[in-house]
Amino acid sequence: MCFANGMKIDAPLMTAELAQVPTEARELEALGYDGTYTFEGRSEPFFPLLLGAEHTTRIELATAVAIALPRNPLQLAHVCHDLQVFSRGRFVLGLGSQIKTHIEKRYGATWSKPIAHMRELVLALKAIWRCWNENERLDFRGEFYRHTLMIPTFAPPPSPVGPPRVLMAGVGAPMTAAAAEVADGIIIHPLHSPEFIRQTTLPALHKGFTRSGRTGAEFEIACQAMVITGFTEEEFRLAEQTTRGSVAFYSSTPAYRVVLETHGWGPLQDELNTLSKQGRWAEMSGLIDDRMLDTLTIRCEPKDLPVRLQARYGGLVDRIGISCYHGRPDRGDPAAWKDIIAACKQVPAVHV
Predict the structure, then answer these.
(1) Which of 183, 199, 221, 285 could staple 179 via S-S, CB 3.0–4.6 A?
(2) Strand partners, 9
(3) What CATH number matches the domain at 8-227+314-344, 3.40.50.300, 3.40.190.10, 3.20.20.30, 3.90.226.10?
C-alpha cells in the first residue's frame, strides 16, 4: 500500500435534523474537508447523505458506520447504488458489525459468526453490483446469503461511476484481516492508539492480503481520531469533559478490550463495564486519567493540530476523521479552522 499524496481529512455530519443537513454539508465542504460521514445512532445513516450529496459537489459522503448484520445485501445494494449514482461517485459505504447485545436486543436480529457474516455480506454486495453494472449472472451462494435471481424488471441501470467503495470497521485482528480480504478499506475505531495500529491493525491487514492474494495497492486505511481542542478555555474544558466520557464509554465494551490491553489497561475494562451496567456514567469518566486520555486522543490548541496529526499518524493511515465530541470546533473561528484543515491535509499519507 502506498499513497504519496497528503492525508485526507474528514468530519462527521453531526446534525440529527434532516432540514439542517444541507447547510452543514455545504459548510463542511467550504471549510476544505475531503469527506463527511454519518453513523447509525439516533438517526438513520443514509438519508442525511442523500441531502448532503444534493447540496455539495466535491466532498465524499460515507456511512461510518451503518450496521451491517440486521440488513439484507440486496436492500443495501439498492440504497448504495442509488446514492452512488446520485452523488456522481462520491458515496462510500462503511459497514460495522456492532456487538452481540445491540444486534440481539436493540435490532432484534440474529448474532452469528460476525466475522464470517461480515465477510460474506461484502462479497454478496459486490456480486450484486457486478450483476447490475457488468451484466454478470447473479449466482451468489453462501452460508448466510443466497442471491440467485435477478430479472430486468428489478435491476437498475448500470452505474456510470461504478459501484461504491466498501470499507469495513475493524478493531480486533480477525475482523481487520477479513476487511483486507474482501473490502476496499478499513475504518479504525476511534478508541485506538498509534501503537495499537502498528502492533495489531497493520499486521492483521497484511495477513488478510496474503490470505486473499491481494496487494493492498488500492486499499484505504481510514481512522477516526478523538480530538480535544477549542478556541476558548470554555470550549477546551467542554471538549475534554465530553471526550473523557466517550473514552470511558468505549472502554467499557468487551470487544474493545484489545486496545486497552496494548497499554496494560485490560483490567480497567472490567471495572468500566460493571459501572456501565449500573448506569454510573459520571464515575466511569473519573477512571480515565490524563495519561490514558493522551494515549487514546489528541489534546492540543487548534493551531497545533497539524503537527500533532503528523506526529501521531504521519505515514500510518490514509485519512483521518476529526471527531470532536463537544461539537464543531470551527464555530469559534471558521477562517482559522479552514487554514488548520488545509495544513492537516499536508500530512503525508504513505504507509506500508
Answers:
(1) 183
(2) 320
(3) 3.20.20.30
